Amino acid sequence: MITLYSFGPAFGLADPSPFCMKAQMLLKIAGLDFTVDKTGFNKAPKGKQPYIDDDGESIADSTFIRFHIEKKYGFDFNAGLDDKAGGVAWAVEKMFEDHLYWVLINERWLKDDNFNRGPRMFFDAAPALIRPFIISMVRKKVAKSTKAHGLGRHSVAEIHLLAEKAIESVANIMGDHKYLMGDKVCGADATAFSFIEGLSCRHFETPVIAIVEKHQNLIAYRDRMRAEWFPELKS
Ligand SMILES: N[C@@H](CCC(=O)N[C@@H](CS)C(=O)NCC(=O)O)C(=O)O
């Protein structure tokens, strides 16, 4: 019995966290049954979601969840990919997770309008009296993290230029394929879909949406993938 600990649907997305969406999609691609638990954040082994409990075994981090599925269930997320394609898939995945993720964070958490229409709701359960203090503290922590990563040291124009280049690279790699690496879904599709979906989410107002929408193949892919893997979501 697998339990996936994540945030649950928000902003028209299967999950506001692209990593949680990715983990959910990996489980779906592998054909495993699971339930979603939205109450586990305070017990997260690495202080972040997603994590899973698989018959008493706890696995934290979407990539280690992937490795666990591959090892325990013998599922090959790179089936059909040669070494070069597997390498490209991994590089694309990590470009989303370790580079474009910070663009998404910057747009959602550090721009007041977007913060107010999105992440602010994560604090609704905090006592009203200390809520503003907690919000300010967490946003300062987020700003510090983006600076520590490096992306947060650039101007807005520079951040969008980097986003443009990264997204264009993904569009070029995908070309006219049905999936990221060809005609068969692979592990990196879980990441690619989740981040393209998150970066182009119309609940927020950001030039990044137009950057993604410049690439018709990415938009068609996003819509196809949503219909295939998350049919429960309205498009
Ligand atoms: N490397 C992790 C990243 C997970 C992650 O960054 N989760 C964020 C949500 S997108 C989180 O739980 N943040 C809470 C926090 O940092 O306090 C993975 O692949 O699962």
Structural summary, described in words:
- Helix content is 55%, strand content 7%.
- The chain has helices at residues 18-29, 62-73, 83-109, 112-117, 131-149, 156-174, 187-199, 207-213, 216-229; strands at 2-5, 34-37, 51-54, 57-60.
- By secondary structure, the protein is an alpha+beta fold.
- Strands 2-1-3-4 form a four-stranded mixed β-sheet, with helices on one face.
- Glutathione binds next to helix 2.
- Glutathione binds at residues 17, 19, 47-50, 61-63.
Tell me the layout of helices and strands.
Layout: E1 2-5, H1 18-29, E2 34-37, E3 51-54, E4 57-60, H2 62-73, H3 83-109, H4 112-117, H5 131-149, H6 156-174, H7 187-199, H8 207-213, H9 216-229
Parallel strand pairs: 1-2
Antiparallel strand pairs: 1-3, 3-4
Helix pairs in contact: 1-2, 1-7, 3-5, 3-6, 3-7, 6-8
The chain binds glutathione.
Task: Kindly summarize this structure in a few lines.
With 235 residues, the protein is α+β, with helices and mostly antiparallel strands. The chain has helices at 18-29, 62-73, 83-109, 112-117, 131-149, 156-174, 187-199, 207-213, 216-229; strands spanning 2-5, 34-37, 51-54, 57-60. It contains nine helices and four strands, in the order βαβββαααααααα.
Largest sheet, spatial ordering of strands? 2-1-3-4
Rg calc? 18 Å
The outline comes out as globular
Mean pLDDT figure:
97
List bound small molecules.
Answer: glutathione
Class based on secondary structure composition and strand pairing: alpha+beta
The total count of helices amounts to 9
Q: Which segments are poorly predicted (pLDDT under 50) over 5 or more consecutive residues?
A: none
**Portion in strands:** 5-15%
Please give the alpha-carbon distance between the first and last residues.
Answer: 30 Å
Largest sheet: 4 strands, mixed
What is the strand tally?
4
